[in-house]
Amino acid sequence: MARRTEAYPNNAPGPFFVDRTCIDCGTCYQFAPDTFADGGAHAYVHTQPMDEARGLRAAMALVACPVGSIGSDEKGHLQAAARAFPHPLTEDVYFSGYTSEKSYGAWSYFIRRPRGNVLMDSPRAAEPLMKNLEALGGVSMLVLSHQDDVADHAAFRQRFGCERVMHRGDGLTGLERLVDGDEPIALDEDLLLIPTPGHTAGSVCLLYRDCLFTGDHLWWNPEKRRLSASRTYNWHSWEQQLASLEKLLAYDFSRVLPGHGYLHKAQSPEAMRADLERAIRALRAS
Ligand code: SF4
Asked: Considering only CA atoms, which residue is closest to atom 6 of ligand 1?
């Protein structure tokens, strides 16, 4: 629970505020940029919400915050915000909200499909989210991109009986399915698991239609205005991560949905490929 007495002084005056417990995961200013901004090492409120839509969006950011660093004196939107996840990003792909401190606020995504719903990485096992996922048909499969973003995977298994899928390279024990090797694996006719070792030994991406879910392998960097990856937060092999980025040039997708960092949508798979080539050139040169 955020405390007004611990609020950063640069919050704009008004009901919403960010306090000193913020871990700068980026969720609030990526999800509700009309209200929140990146202050360098922490988020802050740059403009108080001026209408209903922005008020609800800011309240949803409060709900999604992994560490409860956002407070509001305006309680009107909070109940609706708690029930608003998963939040649709496309016709059948949703942001799960309810990020977890265990995953440092990494984003999880929900894919609603007739052949069985999928979670990409684990959100916080919050009851309002669990109920909504149940109403949307439950979760058949939970794909874990890598060892850092597993959060409450066991609770989702317990609630929904979903099959948890992960690469053996990241070695989590007790899962229903561990995959091996560097070759892509068809989890279903519309779900392709692509091993992309580098950030960790067992990092994988998931391709669904035009969406590539990338975990911590790849994201959009708005300051550099290009796709990016982090050498600083590389836990296994930077050379392998670069090679794994090159491997993605063989696939068609126009959306990148990462665990951390900004989402990216290109006009077409060809435009995304050009974006990826530009990123690889820049990362190899850095
Ligand atoms: S969502 Fe919470 S922890 Fe993440 S940047 Fe915003 S206030 Fe900080």
From this structure: 28
225-236, pLDDT tens digit by residue?
999 999 999 999
Alpha carbons 236 and 253: distance in angstroms, whole number = 26
CA-closest residue to ligand 1 atom 8: 22
CATH at 164: 3.60.15.10
> How many angstroms does the Cα of residue 66 sit away from the middle of ligand 1?
7
CATH number of the CATH domain containing 32? 3.30.70.20
Amino acid 95: pLDDT: 98
* Å from CA of 56 to ligand 1 middle: 16
For 72-88, write each residue's pLDDT tens digit.
998 889 999 999 999 99
Distance 29 CA to ligand 1 centre (A): 8
92 and 203 both lie in a single domain? yes
Question: Would you mind telling me the total number of residues written for the chain in this entry?
Answer: 286
What's the domain range around 277?
A: 87-285
**Counted domains in the chain:** 2
Nearest Cα neighbor of 14 from 29, 2, 4, 23 is: 4
Largest CA distance in the chain: 54
Q: State which ligand 1 atom lies nearest to the alpha carbon of 29.
A: 6
Q: Is 129 within 8 Å of 98 (Cβ atoms)?
A: yes
pLDDT interval class at 191 (50, 70, 90): very high
**55 and 111: one domain?**
no
Determine the 3-state secondary structure of 118 from DSSP.
strand
Distances (CA, A) of 166 to 46, 186, 187: 39, 13, 11
Question: Taking CB atoms and a 6 Å cutoff, what residues make up the pocket around ligand 1?
Answer: 18, 22-28, 43, 65-67, 69-70, 105
Q: Name residue 111's beta-bridge partners.
A: 93, 118
**70 CA distance to ligand 1 middle (Å):** 7
